[in-house]
Structure formats: structure tokens, C-alpha cells
Model the fold of this input.
Amino acid sequence: MRVNVTVNGRSHQADDVWEGESLLYMLRERLGLPGSKNACEQGECGSCTVYLDGVPACACLVAAGQAEGRDVGTVEGLADGAQLDPVQEAFVETGAVQCGFCTPGLLVAAHDLLERDPRPSDTDVREALAGNLCRCTGYEKILDAVRLASDRRAERSQA
Amino acid sequence: MDFLRPTSWADALAAKAEHPDALVIAGGTDVMVELNFDQRRPPALLDLGGVVDLTGWDVHDGRIRLGAAVPYARVITELGDRLPGLAIASRTVGSPQIRNRGTVGGNLGSASPAGDAHPPLLACGADVEVCSVRGTRTVSISEFFTGVKRNALEPDELVAAVHLDAASGPQQFSKVGTRNAMVIAVCTFALALHPRERTVGTGLGSAAPTPRRATEAEQFLAEELADTGRWDVPTALPDSVNGKFGDLAAAAAAPIDDVRGSSDYRKHAIRVLARRTLGWTWNDYCAGRQQCA
Done:
């Protein structure tokens, strides 16, 4: 089947999509957007987290056909050209990226949290990121990154 | 495989009548796991994501009609005051990503014994609105679950909505899992006090082949509260009442041994959860909280 979808503001058309295929597979293998990672394929790890109509979802648990006519935002869409999003900058600076496999999903989840709540408490951050597994960092640096990104965003909005 | 994308409720019912073996997909959080792991290859997928009629809720005379495709995240943010038990249970579902997509209607469709929405629906005495091209019927939640992952739906029927009263008293839900997020329940217990009707509602999850009520525990507590005048003048419950309520709740369980827990452990846990949720709801009732929705 054919699926029409807008990804990061650009219209795409994917052909020969298998009816049982996930949005994640379509993004990675048909649209050439490998930022969203494929790890567990059962919604446990969060590494495929994308925005679907502005709401974070596991792309592995969305059927490609369910994205027809909808708006998808992936990690590739967070930066503004060469200018990284504050969340991306903070992940780099605090060492919240090690092997990097969980990073795209965590970036989308953390970005969404800060869009909804620019000043989250640590408990809020832990709850918001509970669906994203990381096997390298021990999470402390990820928490540091979200705190730093929160501060940066506040500075920028005042500037 | 076909992918059916109805955009209206009438088209969805027509599609289900024409393809009774189509697998219904709502949020996809259950169905896609089975497809990804090659555990299921249905002849067709029937996607309800484009049916706007299913994504709303409204209130008539204090009774809420919750559309089948309202995700858990919206139950939490929009209905926490009116449906506290269901909202608390919804908060324990998966992760934010899963709660953004998973729906109460999908939970009913899957009819897993471990579905987190089921115990509060049982405790609230919900009715399931079921539709087909032949018409609409209402199935009491007590009769909806017919076996492990089986429900009362006919092959051409779809869940349209769930109907349940706005809380007239405190409600609680508790869950045993191996961590604080992202777990399938080892077992769950839901409790609702209905002071207007002077009844008590319960629901057990992951503790029997189907979600079920602990009817003897419900009757015992309701009679105890009536006989002692505590519905009108709430005072602390004696330990003997809490204990017997827990024992009767555990007696209603018929759990299996599996990877998540042993039968003995689950029975024990149900006893503890029942006592504990009774403590919480009774404290709320004594403090006069949530008596009016």
C-alpha cells in the first residue's frame, strides 16, 4: 500500500508498504531516516520515540498505515539546520551520550517534557523518561542534561 | 493482508461486518507487538485511528460515555476528578509514550486478564457499548470477559464506548509490579465506594483467567458499613473488618503460577492490596474527600 505522511515538515510518499509494517520500519528503511532506533520492537525501550501529531509515541507500535495523512517528528527534526536544540546541546555537554543508541528516543522524550513543562522537577523528569531505557549512562548524566537544557531554554527565552 | 482505514463509525462497522476476521487496531500498543514478533498474521487490520467519533467523552446525568479510542493520557488529564479509579489505573500503564496511544477500548478488545483498565471498570459497574451494523447493545462489564483474552464481542462487533458513573465516593487502585514503571501487573486491585447507592465495587486484575469482582468482599463491606451506621457517620474501621475484607478479596482470586509471580504470592498480594486500598479509600471517606464528584 501507499502511505502519505509529513515527516519533519516535509511531505513523503512511501510505496509498497507492507500492511503490518511499523512506522519505525517505514521511517528507517523506506524514507531514509535512521535516527529513530530499532531495539525492542515492543514499546519497552523507547529508542524509537517520535512525535505523532505532536504527541510522543513509540514508532514501533504505530502501524505505518496509521500514520497516513499525519504529522511525524523525528530526532532528525529537532535541530534547526546546524543549530542543535538545547536538549541536544545539553546531552553532548553533560556526557549523557555514550553508545548513543537510546539517545534519539531520549531526546524526543526530553524535548516533549520541556515543551510541556519548562521547569520540571527531578521526579517529573524521571517519570517522563520512564519509557526510555539506557544501558550505558546510569541515567544520572541524562538527568543532568535535562536540567541543563531546562536552564538553557530559560536563558534563551529571557534573552 | 489488507489495511482497512475507515474514517467514519458507519464505515468502521461496515468494514467489520464485511471482514469479521480483521484484527482491530486502536492505539496499536498490543497489536503491533504481535505483528512485530510474527505471532499473528491476520488477514486484515482494521484501524480505528481515523474514526473521530471514538475519540471523545461526554457526560449525561452524571454518567460518562468514554469513547473507545480515548487514550489513557487523556483519561488522566481530563477525567481524574470524575473517574479517579480509572485515572489512577491509567497512570500505571506502560510509559508516557504508551499512555499517549493505548486506549480503554483497546484494553477491552484485547481482554487480557492483566489489563490495567479492567479492575476499575469492574469496581465502577461500567457498561460496554457494543455496536455492529445490526445495531447497538450494552454489555455489563461483569459479563464482558469470557475467558483468557476472550470477550463477549461477536465477530462483527466493535466496542464504541464505556459508560460509567462519575465517582460519588472515593476510589483507589493499586498494582504490584517489579518496578515502578513499564510493567505488566503481577496483580492489581481496584476499589470504589458508592455512598449514594451504599454499595462497594471491587475489581481484581491478573489474579484469575479473567478480570473479576470480589463480590463477597463487596457485600461484606457494604453490609458492615450499613449495620454500623458508618456510611452516615464514618469512623475508623476495626482491623478485623480490614482483615476480613482482604481475606474475602483473596478468596475471590484464582491465580496461576507464571513468570511474573506464583499463585500463592498473588493471593497474598491481593489480600494486602485489598486491605491497603480499603485503608486509603476509607481515610478519604472519613475526611469527606471525593464524596461529591
Summary: Residues 2-165 of chain B form a domain with the Uridine Diphospho-n-acetylenolpyruvylglucosamine Reductase; domain 3 fold (CATH 3.30.465.10). Chain B touches chain A at residues 1-3, 5, 25, 27-29, 31-33, 35-37, 41, 44-45, 47, 49-50, 73, 94-98, 100-101, 180-182 (CB under 8 Å).
